[in-house]
Write a structure and sequence with these properties.
Order of helices and strands: HEHHHEHH
Number of domains: 1
Strand order of the largest sheet: 1-2
Largest sheet: 2 strands, antiparallel
Strand content: under 5%
Shape: globular
Number of strands: 2
Structural class: mainly alpha
Length: about 200
């Protein structure tokens, strides 16, 4: 019986179908590569912040930042995206057309906030809603990665006061996420000036 279903599944996979250009985009496929490319500069920036604000030796700050940022990027970001996608699914976001009722900015904001994990196709007439979705998901990523990085840096540097570590990790994440937001905005502007 299981073999029968396996054969049916394989046949279904290899049957050619029409490709649609208006498919739903899991936003993690857009944001995670950006985060992975930015990982090394972020590790360096946050290590310098840890060194300067926690009086850590550069090597210890670099190791703390590398481990904390790698864990938060590889585990925290996909976990956050999964929770946001699950909330979207549970709340019915997958079953509502996001292109209806996009007349005001507040309507656009609410629709994009509701669909930020799996962004549905958006007509070009609705401006930079994909950028807005990216910025909103970055906010969710920010809070989770900050907490993960705080936990790891605190555990690796037990001699430091936890409130100080928490505030320094917050400052480091505000700076690096600010740079990620700036990068996303520049990227979108760059795409706008490219000839079609």
């Amino acid at each position: 019986m299981q073999r029968k279903y396996s054969i049916i599944a394989l046949i279904a996979i290899f049957i050619p179908t029409t490709a649609l250009a208006n498919a739903v985009i899991p936003l993690i496929f857009v944001t995670l590569p950006i985060m992975l490319y930015a990982l090394l500069p972020i590790i360096w920036i946050e290590a310098k912040i840890l060194k300067n604000n926690l009086n850590l030796p550069l090597k210890k700050a670099m190791i703390s930042s590398a481990i904390a940022n790698t864990v938060s990027t590889i585990f925290g970001i996909p976990l956050t995206w999964f929770v946001v996608a699950l909330l979207q699914f549970i709340s019915g976001g997958f079953f509502i057309d996001p292109n209806t009722g996009l007349d005001t900015f507040s309507q656009k904001f609410l629709v994009v906030a509701w669909h930020m994990a799996w962004l549905s196709p958006i007509p070009p007439t609705h401006g930079n809603l994909a950028l807005l979705a990216m910025l909103l998901i970055l906010i969710a990523f920010f809070f989770v990665t900050w907490q993960i990085e705080y936990f790891i840096v605190k555990r690796m540097n037990k001699q430091l006061e936890p409130p100080l570590v928490k505030s320094v990790c917050l400052r480091a994440n505000i700076i690096t996420y600010g740079l990620l937001v700036l990068f996303c905005m520049i990227f979108v502007l760059f795409l706008k000036i490219l000839p079609s």
